[in-house]
């Protein structure tokens, strides 16, 4: 069985090839998740690239990304599998009309089975395992977490009428969480854990260079520095990498080449996501290095 | 990243190494389970770390399971593996310009000044392959006296009076009463569905399963309806000097709520401390002892507005959504009332119900005249006296009454106070 990656450096290089830059910690975490066949729980502030890390991983491996978005009340019927009842009832009517005999086993075949994300990941046929992204697990409720345990431990799903499906190769499972709710210890125990931090200024600049090709070098440099300083302010929602990319895209779209106070104020809505934060940043513009410009006559 | 001669760990018994490191982490309060240790060994086998940085990330990803433990992990790793790893560690960089300011509520028990940056223990790991002088050094009494373990100092000793013990009979009575009273706790409709007669939706799976008995003719429809859940509860308890007498009783209320309704509980005075995990301990004695240890700023001043802002900004702020928020405080605040009003308004927009428990409200002739209370009152649904156990025990019933029988009825006109001072 071939390994997916040779080492953490390989992960970093191949993710960079598909345009996603990760630090050595995230690369190690992703590498260990693939080599140890353990699910990986990614946590971090919103907008640091948890979901995009999983997407980039699938792209780098050239395997399908199977995504399960969590919400309260998510059930087995939406996460594991469901029978296609409409088709089953139709099949019943059809055989009755033909005067044929129908056994239970004829109705509960794979023909009538609807794959939901988890079963799809288990039944995936291919040289490489798929990447299964269980997004925002903290939004699901305790019942769903408990439902995941068998799957995460055994990589198998049991359907009473058909039997147990076991994965040929365990899928690469990435769970993300925004910590809006404490996850159960049993779930944490089953996963490797990585906390993604906001990237360093140099890395942030590198990421911006990749994602916003239209922006020029001085703009990216001053924008990263600005974001770094804004993050040190006491804000309700510190701008993440996603906000930084949005903001620089906005500035590039407005054809700004040198960051001035006027540009910061007009595009601030991309960085500050609440009125309080907006006031705080506007108030601190002076010390952030963008003083009130003298009125030109 | 400094390249060290490859391999980084020559001739080390991986299992013994992992167990020793895990043990050291556990002693420092990082809960490292057997699964995690096993993962660490497997990871070391899969990719032997060539540098200390690689070892750091391998150990961190496999051994640590939650973000608040990262700081302590860094300390232990630093103390074991010599030179500071902080330069390569983004977690430590958070204090720098690239990082966000640390959130108040996450600093549960800050170590005494000076201890955080220092190595905790100078002795190395009990390496099986190292000379016995090093591995035995830890158990040597003389050694212990020269290199003492860094323990929290008694700097905080002035405020270190324990929460007073409640009389055994009273505590028992309170517990029993609270258990029965909490049955009337308000509920909310969840998005999870369960089979029940009179539900709104037809459950196809169950209906078809039943139809198998009637020749695949769905004669009887099975219905599902939304399940009701207890509403989330967030309790904020003032433990400043002016609330010293009530602190123990409120701690009992918080524990009862944490156990029965899975409430999030916080204590505040000048800073906010999360007590949810501590108070949920099975033994009440241990729970209260640990809570006493956790709250470092008790019986001092009060900064209600500051603490509310910290809670709203932290990641626990999400738990306030649609929750019943109980604030237990006498309303003596060191912060300006405008700040409190702004924070309370934000809290009110996020929460379902805001209830203020004031120990002074039970006194005859009480009027909420302090500037703090007048600032907060417009954003409070219910102001309740909480000076005696009896008053405390009435709280769940009052809240249930306010939110309707099942917690889904319309909100009353605010502020609703049951005494004539409005």
Give an account of the 3D structure.
The complex is a heterodimer of chains A (297) and B (422). With 297 residues, chain A is an alpha/beta fold. Chain A folds into three domains: 8-80 and 116-196, Rossmann fold (3-Layer(aba) Sandwich), CATH 3.40.50.300; 81-112, no CATH class; 201-284. Chain A is 47% helix and 13% strand. In chain A, the strands form three sheets. A five-stranded parallel sheet of chain A has the order 2-5-8-1-9, with helices on both faces. In chain A, strands 3-4 form a two-stranded antiparallel sheet. In chain A, strand 6 and strand 7 form a beta hairpin. In chain B, helix 1 (14-27) packs across helix 2, helix 2 (34-46) runs antiparallel to helix 3 and helix 13 (304-313) packs parallel to helix 14. Chain B has three domains: 14-152, no CATH class; 175-182 and 231-402, von Willebrand factor, type A domain (Rossmann fold, 3-Layer(aba) Sandwich), CATH 3.40.50.410; 190-229, no CATH class. Chain B is flat, with a radius of gyration of 27 Å. In chain B, helix 14 (337-350) links the parallel strand 7 (324-328) and strand 8. In chain B, the strands form two sheets. Chain B has a six-stranded mixed sheet. Chain B contains 16 helices and nine strands. Classes of the chains: A alpha/beta (297), B alpha/beta (422). At the A-B interface, helix 2, helix 5, helix 9, strand 9 and helix 11 of A face helix 2, helix 3, helix 5, strand 1 and helix 9 of B. Chain B: It holds the Pfam family VWA_CoxE. Chain B: Residues 91-108 have a biased composition (Basic and acidic residues). Chain B: It comes from Streptomyces brasiliensis. Chain B: Residues 230-393 form the VWFA domain.
């Amino acid at each position: 069985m071939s390994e997916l990656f040779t080492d953490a450096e390989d992960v970093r290089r191949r993710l960079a090839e598909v345009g996603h830059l990760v630090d050595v910690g995230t690369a190690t975490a992703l590498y260990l998740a693939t080599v140890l066949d353990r699910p990986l729980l990614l946590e971090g502030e919103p907008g640091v690239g948890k979901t995009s890390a999983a997407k980039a991983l699938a792209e780098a491996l050239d395997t399908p990304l199977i995504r399960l978005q969590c919400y309260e009340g998510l059930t087995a019927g939406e996460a594991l599998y469901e029978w296609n009842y409409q088709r089953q009832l139709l099949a019943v009517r059809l055989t009755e009309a033909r005067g044929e005999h129908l056994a239970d086993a004829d109705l509960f075949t794979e023909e009538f089975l609807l794959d939901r994300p988890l079963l799809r990941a288990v039944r995936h046929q291919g040289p490489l395992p798929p990447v299964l992204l269980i997004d925002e697990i903290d939004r699901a409720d305790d019942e769903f977490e408990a439902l995941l345990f068998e799957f995460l431990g055994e990589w198998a799903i049991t359907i009473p009428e058909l039997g147990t499906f076991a994965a040929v190769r365990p899928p690469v499972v990435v769970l993300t969480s925004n910590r809006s709710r404490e996850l159960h210890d049993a779930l944490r125990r089953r996963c490797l854990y990585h906390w993604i931090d906001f990237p360093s200024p140099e890395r942030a600049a590198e990421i911006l260079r990749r994602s916003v090709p239209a922006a020029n070098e001085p703009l990216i440099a001053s924008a990263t520095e600005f974001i770094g300083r804004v993050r040190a302010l006491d804000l309700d929602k510190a701008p993440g990498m996603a906000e930084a990319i949005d903001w620089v895209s906005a500035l590039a779209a407005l054809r700004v080449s040198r960051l001035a106070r006027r540009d910061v104020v007009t595009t601030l809505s991309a960085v500050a996501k609440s009125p309080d934060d907006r006031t705080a940043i506007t108030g601190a513009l002076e010390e952030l290095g963008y003083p009130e410009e003298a009125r030109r006559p | 990243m400094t390249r060290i001669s490859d391999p980084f760990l020559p001739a080390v018994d991986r299992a013994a190494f992992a167990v020793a490191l895990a043990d050291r982490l556990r002693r420092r309060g990082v809960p490292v389970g057997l699964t995690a240790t096993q993962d660490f060994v497997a990871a070391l086998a899969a990719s032997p770390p060539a540098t200390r940085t690689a070892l750091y990330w391998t150990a961190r990803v496999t051994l640590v399971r939650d973000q608040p433990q990262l700081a302590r992990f860094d300390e232990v790793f630093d103390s074991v593996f010599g030179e500071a790893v902080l330069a390569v560690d983004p977690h430590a960089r958070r204090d720098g310009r690239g990082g966000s300011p640390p959130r108040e509520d996450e600093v549960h028990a800050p170590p005494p000044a000076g201890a955080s940056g220092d190595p905790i223990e100078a002795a190395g790991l009990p390496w099986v392959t190292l000379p016995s002088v090093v591995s035995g050094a830890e158990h040597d009494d003389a050694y212990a006296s020269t290199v003492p373990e860094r323990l929290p100092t008694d700097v905080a000793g002035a405020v270190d009076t324990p929460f007073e013990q409640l009389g055994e009979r009273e505590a028992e009575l309170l517990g029993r009463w609270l258990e029965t009273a909490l049955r009337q706790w308000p509920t909310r409709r969840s998005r999870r569905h369960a089979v029940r007669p009179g539900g709104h939706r037809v459950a196809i799976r169950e209906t078809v399963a039943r139809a198998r008995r009637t020749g695949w003719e769905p004669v009887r429809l099975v219905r599902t309806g939304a399940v009701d859940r207890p509403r989330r509860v967030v309790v904020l308890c003032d433990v400043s000097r002016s609330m010293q007498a009530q602190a123990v009783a409120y701690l009992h209320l918080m524990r009862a709520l944490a156990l029965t309704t899975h409430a999030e509980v916080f204590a505040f005075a000048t800073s906010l401390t999360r007590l949810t995990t501590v108070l949920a301990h099975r033994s009440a004695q241990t729970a209260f002892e640990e809570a006493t240890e956790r709250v470092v700023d008790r019986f001092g001043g009060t900064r209600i507005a500051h603490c509310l802002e910290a809670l709203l900004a932290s990641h626990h702020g999400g738990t306030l959504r649609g929750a019943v928020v109980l604030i237990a405080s006498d309303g003596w605040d060191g912060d300006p009332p405008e700040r409190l009003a702004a924070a309370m308004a934000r809290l009110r927009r996020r929460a379902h119900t805001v209830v203020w428990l004031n120990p002074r409200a039970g006194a005859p002739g009480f009027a909420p005249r302090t500037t703090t209370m007048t600032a907060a009152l417009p954003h409070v649904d219910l102001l309740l006296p909480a000076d005696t156990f009896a008053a405390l025990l009435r709280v769940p019933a009052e809240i249930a009454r306010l939110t309707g029988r099942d917690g889904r009825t319309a909100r009353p006109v605010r502020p609703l106070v049951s005494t004539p001072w409005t």
